[in-house]
Amino acid sequence: MMWFNFFPLLVLFVGLFFPLQGYAFNPSHLQQLKNTKSCPRCDLERADLSALDLSGANLNGANLKYAILTGTNLKAARLRAANLKGAKFKQTILEGAQLQKAILREVRLQGHNLSRANLSRADLRRADLSNSNLRRTIMEATNLEHSKLTWARLEGANLRSANLKSADLSWAILEMADLRGAHLQKALLVETIFLGANLVRANLTGAEMIAPNLINAVLTHSIWTDGKTCDNGSLGKCLRIK
């Protein structure tokens, strides 16, 4: 019958235009990474990198979408501009990782240690970073819009010009953090600790602040929740410009 003659062509068409999703990475790239710890701009999409020691590895610009990173050691790894969208993180070591301009949109990194990592200009929109260790992390101009940072440890973090619009920072610790020029519009700030933080020129318009700790926080020229600008000498509270 004509159907049986057509069936092989249908299978070929499906194979060409709708490849199986389970095997998307380049096997030679995976072997190169295992052998040399250097695979910049490699295609490792959906690769299983579980439990590998990739500390200090060069993965700049690599495609790591949907990669499995369970127990992977990425301490001080170079991941600049790497695409990690959909990557599976579980007990992944990321301390000191270089993630500038990396794509980490919607990833789940709750409870992970990213202390001293560099996430400048990375895309972390809608990422879950709750209970994570972000002490002294560099997140200058990082996009954290709609991200979840509840109970996160951000002591000494650099968040200058970071986009934290509509982010949930409830119970987060931002002691001595640098938030100069940060965008905190409509952020949720329930009992958030800003002890000694620098919020000069930060924008807090529409933020929901419930019992935050602002002791010694510098608020000079920041825009308060009501849209009013804080005057010089605003320390611990916003002094409205008269």
Automatic annotation (TrEMBL):
What SUPFAM superfamilies does the database record attribute to this sequence? Pentapeptide repeat-like (SSF141571)
Q: Which UniProt keywords apply?
A: Repeat
Which Gene3D superfamilies does the record cross-reference, listed alphabetically? Answer: E3 ubiquitin-protein ligase SopA (2.160.20.80)
A Pfam family per the record: Pentapeptide
Q: What is this protein called?
A: Pentapeptide repeat-containing protein
- The record lists the organism as SAR324 cluster bacterium
Its lineage opens with: Bacteria, Deltaproteobacteria, SAR324 cluster
